[in-house]
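Hi, here's the filled form for the chain we discussed.

Project: internal
Contact: R.S.
Residues: 111
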Amino acid sequence: MDILLFPPVVFIISLLFSLALAEFLTPLAAAPKRVPGSAKHNAYGCGEDVPEGKVDPDYHGFFPFAIFFTLLHVAGLMLATWSFNPLSAGLGLVFGYVAAVAIILAILFVD
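And the returned structure, exactly as it came back:
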C-alpha cells in the first residue's frame, strides 16, 4: 500500500480522477447562450470600440527584469547557503561567485 503514497502514482491517480470527473460532469454544464446582436463577446476597452484582432505584446523590456530577479534570488540562496560554513567552499569561490553575479548584472543592464 506504500506505492499509493509515491508522488508519481498519486499524480497519475489524481489526473485520471480529474479527467473522469470532468467527462462525467460536462453534460451537466450549461451551454453558452449566443444572443443575436449582443455585444457580450466583443472586445471592450473603457467604452470605446476596439477593433477585433490579435495583440502582439512586446516583452523585450520584461526579460531583463525577470533575469535580474532570478539571478539575485539564486545568488542570495547560494550566499545564504555558503554563509553557514564559507570555508568549506573556499573564500575564493564565494568571492568569485559574487564577482560573476556582478559582471552578469552589469552586462544585463548596460546598453
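Let me know if anything looks off before we file it.
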